[in-house]
Specification:
The protein is α+β, with helices and mostly antiparallel strands. It is built from 19 helices and 30 strands.
Length: about 600
């Protein structure tokens, strides 16, 4: 159990989980590039001892593997799981009272603890003193990637009505006045948005504190989707094995254990352009207006360490966050939505764009013909729940004799494709909200969704090689079998939806005339079919991050009957569109330059790169 980040670093190093980089490293692209290579290699946490332009050290890849994360929380993991399970299902305490005797005591000991006078030895610094890390070449400036952003409810002030979230923070660049202003990017469905809305109604600025560092439990708590009534601050104490210690300075909440604290205010109606930023979908999120935070004071502990991560195309370190959250929350979704066994936000597709779910079909057991009924109700519940509501594609089925696992993604998708009735089982939601970071739609936060709900007996054998009818098509070529039942076609560059409509009209007519799509319920149009076929991750990433269901789904022999759209074979146009954000591409010169750290005699010579 760590009182601070330094104790965690020492523990990791003593147990072979951390390497010190003794050479000076440039925070402009170099630190991020090193992190990416070490993460990809499954390597250790990294302590950067000499950050160019800053007196502070930096650490990354703390949570780079699930094994290392569990090592960090090895003394408190089970107690935290029990608390979350108990809040999700209170009946467990009545059913197993002896098992849960210690759980209430653990929760009581985790309550935040207020101290007077403020933390000792804090020194006041400036934003420009921090390690200003720029991760990708087109980023708008330096960003905090592991912040704990704290705000309180203006109507009910106090730590038990607070929100602790991880919202990215732009420290430099764009129109921000260095040391005076920073940008705060938060997406829809976030707790801080509720607080700011209340402050705006009162005509008051919202006080915000940004904690960086401290015990690793505090960082994980900022991203945890917790049951109603369990605050992030209590959970932080529970997972740390030590109460969250805080005080107030100039009316701002201060984490006594954080390495850095930035305080300031968000004023009603004040925004500035934030971004671009290389994000977790594997593309840049572009420049948009987001709240402006005016700096009050910046603090640092003596010998403070700046933790950071690098966000990019999955998998990345935040993938481990996702796995930890899934294990901690367990079957919380089945408690929240009865009838849902599991929901898997597919990491390879950038998490929010694609959900796989298993529900139940209990409504009509007497019917001879099996078809989705309860599944459609469950799909609506899923798409109306928290951040799951940001999804674009939801594939849902019900388990029968064959055991299903949504994490076995190819098997799960094949199961649905074998059973789908494409004239009945596609359900669209148009002109609705999607993820802020997803640029496949029609505007910021705006796009469409589709539910693919398949259930019943097997309807087809999936093709296991490219059918002959896909060869020598007029405009689309290089057919590749991606997986059973899925064929990729490489097409001309996408110019406009008008052009695409004409191209697809011709393609669907040609495929229909040939009878080409037998055993192939899903066809993907792309810019590079070999890349799509290379592995499952490429297929999931390209298909579901580069398409907007309402605009990019077509079909062979499609028709609308009583306002319901259906077809014989589904076509998803996943070609890159002009309005979409550019993908993340590393700087080749930086990639070459960091080779010195991995060469003989370098601090990272022992890391085996893949």
């Amino acid at each position: 159990m760590y009182r601070n980040l330094e104790e965690c670093i020492i523990d990791l190093e003593q147990n072979g989980h951390l390497v010190r980089i003794k050479e000076e490293v440039d925070p402009y692209l170099e630190m991020a590039a090193i992190h990416l290579k070490v993460y990809e290699a499954g390597g250790p946490a990294l302590l950067f001892e000499k950050v160019k332009g800053s007196k502070f050290r930096a650490v990354s890849n703390l949570f780079g593997t699930v094994e290392r994360s569990k090592f960090i929380f090895r003394h408190t993991w089970e107690a935290a799981k029990n608390i979350v399970a108990l809040r999700s299902d209170p009946m467990q305490a009545l059913k197993h009272p002896l098992k849960h005797t210690g759980t209430g005591l653990a929760a009581l000991k985790a309550l935040p603890m207020k101290t007077s006078g403020g933390p000792a030895a804090l020194q006041e610094i400036r934003i420009s003193d921090l390690p200003l890390i720029q991760h990708w070449p087109m980023d708008g400036g330096a960003f905090i990637t592991l912040p704990q952003v704290y705000s309180e409810d203006p109507d009910k002030p106090g730590i038990m009505n607070s929100n602790l979230g991880m919202y990215r923070v732009q420290l430099s660049g764009n129109e921000y006045e260095l040391d005076q202003e920073i940008g705060l990017h938060y997406q829809i469905h976030r707790g801080i948005g509720v607080h700011q809305s209340k402050a705006v109604k009162k005509g008051e600025p919202l006080k915000v504190s940004i904690f960086v560092g401290g015990p690793p439990a505090h960082t994980l708590s900022a991203v945890m989707p917790l049951p109603e009534g369990l605050s992030e601050m209590t959970f932080a104490g529970l997972l740390a094995g030590r109460r969250f210690r805080y005080s107030y300075v100039d009316g701002y909440c201060i984490s006594n254990d954080a390495d850095f604290v930035i305080t300031g205010e968000i004023y009603p109606g004040q925004t500035k352009p934030e971004g671009p930023f290389g994000d977790h979908l594997g593309y840049y999120s572009l420049t948009h207006e987001f709240p402006l935070m005016r700096i009050h004071k910046v603090f640092a502990k003596p010998n403070a360490v700046w933790p950071f991560t690098v966000v990019g195309r999955p998998p990345q370190e935040d993938t481990s966050f996702g796995e930890l959250i899934h294990e901690l929350t367990g079957d919380a979704i089945s408690q929240e939505i009865p009838g849902v066994r599991e929901v898997h936000a597919v990491d390879a597709a950038g998490v929010h764009p694609l959900l796989f779910a298993i529900g139940s079909e209990r409504y009509t057991p007497y019917q001879q013909v099996k078809q989705p009924t309860e599944l459609l109700t469950l799909a609506n519940r899923i798409l109306g729940t928290g951040q799951l509501s940001l999804a674009k594609y939801l594939f849902i089925t019900a388990e029968e004799e064959q055991p299903l696992d949504t994490h076995k993604e190819a098997e799960f998708l094949a199961y649905i494709l074998e059973r789908i009735d494409l004239r009945r089982d596609l359900h669209f939601y148009t002109n609705t909200t999607i993820d802020t970071l997803d640029y496949s739609g029609t505007g910021l936060n705006y796009g469409s969704k589709v539910v693919i709900a398949a259930y019943g007996d097997k309807k087809r054998e999936l093709c296991r090689q490219v059918p002959e009818g896909f060869r020598d098509l007029r405009d689309f070529g290089h057919p590749e079998l991606v997986m059973p039942g899925v064929v990729a076609l490489q097409g001309p560059a996408f110019h406009s939806y008008e052009d695409a409509g004409q191209q697809l009209e011709a393609l669907t007519a040609e495929l229909a005339a040939r009878g080409a799509a037998e055993g192939c319920p899903m066809i993907i149009l792309c810019d590079d079919s070999s890349f799509l076929r290379a592995d499952l991750s490429n297929f999931l990433w390209v298909t579901f991050t580069r398409s907007n269901p309402s605009h990019d789904i077509y079909g062979v022999n499609s028709e609308v009957r009583y306002k319901h759209w259906g077809c014989d074979s589904l076509i998803i146009d996943a070609r890159t569109k002009p309005h979409q954000a550019p993908p993340l591409i590393p700087d080749p010169d930086v990639e070459k330059n960091i080779g010195r750290f991995f060469a003989q005699g370098g601090s990272l010579a022992g890391v085996k790169l893949r």
